[in-house]
Design goal:
Strand order of the largest sheet: 10-9-8-11-7-12-13-14-15-16-17
CATH topology of the largest domain: UDP-N-acetylmuramoyl-L-alanine:D-glutamate ligase
Strand content: 15-25%
Shape: globular
CATH architecture of the largest domain: 3-Layer(aba) Sandwich
CATH superfamily of the largest domain: Mur-like, catalytic domain
Number of domains: 3
């Protein structure tokens, strides 16, 4: 807690005790400051009465507003929020070395690998799978939360002994100015393909937000880039610090060869004119790239490559990402977050190298966003799968049947059926699966909700799968 006078210059008679910072008026508790940030569709100045009614003791605004509690006017509330949060939590960002990871795909995997290789006693993780270190593990709402929560998490990491933070930095977070006051020891861009254009509108805007990460790397820091990515040259021109690269072409860490199996990937890499061969438990070419980015991060921090490679067998794939599940069944079950054409393409490239039977895919597409990707994605899934069951995936306010119509519109193939209810779709896939088939359940990974209209209803693919095998012990 802090006094308002410790955060802003105010009249003494206005001083109050501040217990927290919030930007959601519905979450305000007695003693909180309400910061009226500007959203894409919401102006939080409109919710000041509700915030005060719920107990806000002060408000931060960028408009001329009079109200019954101390009011602090600033030029831009979105930019003010991280500054205020930093003060309130005693500048925790100054006590952490940040390893930021962005990219269309691979953020969670790279961030998790880095924490695993470094050790969760000194390195925390923040991203899609929550916040974690050796002392705690919690779920969070967003990949990169708003600053009112973010700086509180930073303080928690510091207070629990972390000196490094491996964090996913989403393009939306840069777009919304959540991260502009941070300096990164390491910035990693995994890849950039078309995604989230519902927010960014154009691929140029999307790339600009992604490359902002390497623009915020410290002078003595490192920018780690995928030299095989189509946007590599554009990103490299903006990168700060020492630039390290990885890829199949000549790079700091060069991918020479790989062999895949259900047990893992045998990898051959070249670093400083030396060849290194080892087995990774991670599957897929995309995970070789993810591993290379992670290895370079540790090399940048002074670790020796031999030391790093010895730790690779300890890596566990992030839950819901190329995750094979075993319940004693005769076929394979693969759970994955794939929800873009690029992610599916890479996933099917892997499956083509290891499959022994058919590929049966259960998937859908989220409602209310990126309709333009549905046709190409559906066509790819139909071409690469032996059979597809299209189903719901966070429909929000859209009709699921309309979404599925978009998914099949670019293809003349008929190797599919529609089952709206996702649990029924998964059950059906298991019922028709035969020995050595791969049942791919894609889109939601380990999400624990289904977004329907404006509600987040409890739902988990993993729970559905586990329930099926409790009722059908042999699949």
């Amino acid at each position: 807690m802090k006094k308002l006078s410790e955060l802003y210059e105010i009249d003494k008679n206005q001083d109050v005790l501040v217990k927290g910072i919030k930007i959601n008026s519905k979450e305000i508790e007695p003693g909180d400051i309400f910061v009226c940030t500007m959203g894409v569709t919401a102006d939080r100045h409109d919710f000041i009465p509700e915030a005060i009614e719920n107990g806000a003791v002060a408000v931060v605004v960028e408009k001329d507003i009079e109200c019954s509690v101390p009011t602090i006017k600033v030029e831009n509330t979105n930019r003010e929020l991280p500054i205020l949060a930093s003060k309130f939590y005693d500048h925790p960002e100054e006590e952490l070395e940040f390893i930021g990871i962005t990219g269309t795909n691979g953020k969670t995997t790279v961030a998790t690998i880095i924490q695993t290789l470094m050790g969760n006693d000194i390195c925390g993780y923040l991203g899609t799978n929550g916040i974690s270190c050796s002392k705690f593990q919690e779920s969070i709402r967003n990949t990169t939360p708003d600053s009112d929560r973010l700086y509180g998490y930073f303080r928690k990491f510091v207070d629990n002994g972390c000196r490094f933070l491996s964090m996913e930095t989403s393009s939306e977070a840069f777009y919304r100015k959540r991260l502009e006051n941070l300096n990164f020891k390491i910035g990693i861009i995994t890849n950039i393909t078309e995604d989230h254009l519902n927010i960014h509108k154009t691929i140029e805007n999307y790339v600009a937000c992604k490359k902002q990460l390497v623009c915020q790397v410290k002078e003595d820091g490192f920018s780690i880039l995928n030299s095989d990515d189509s946007h590599y040259e554009k990103v490299r021109k903006s990168a700060k610090g020492t630039i390290l690269t990885y890829g199949k072409q000549e790079s700091t860490l060069q991918i020479i060869d790989a062999h895949y199996s259900f047990q893992g990937t045998k990898i051959k890499l070249k670093y400083q004119n030396q060849i290194y061969e080892f087995l990774s438990p991670l599957l897929g070419e995309f995970n070789i790239y993810n591993l290379c980015a992670s290895i370079l991060a540790l090399l940048a921090l002074g670790y020796q490559i031999e030391e790093i490679i010895k730790k690779v067998p300890n890596i566990i794939a992030p839950s819901g990402r190329v995750e094979f599940l075993e319940f004693g069944q005769k076929y394979h079950i693969l759970l994955d977050y794939a929800h873009t054409p690029d992610a599916f393409s890479k996933l099917f490239d892997l499956l083509d190298t290891i499959k022994e039977g058919r590929i049966i895919t259960v998937t859908g597409s989220a409602g209310g966003r990126e309709k333009e990707k549905r046709g190409p994605m559906g066509k790819l899934v139909l071409e690469k799968s032996d059979y597809v069951i299209f189903t719901m995936d966070d429909p929000r306010y859209e009709n699921v049947s309309d979404i599925i119509s978009d998914l099949v519109k670019d293809s003349n193939q008929t190797n599919y059926e529609t089952i709206i209810d996702r649990k029924e779709a998964i059950d059906k896939a298991f019922e028709i699966a035969q020995e050595n088939d791969i049942v791919l359940i894609a889109g939601k990974g380990t999400d624990n909700y289904m977004a329907v209209e404006d509600k987040y209803l409890p739902y988990s693919d993993l729970d559905v799968i586990e329930e099926y095998f409790k009722e059908n012990k042999n699949g």
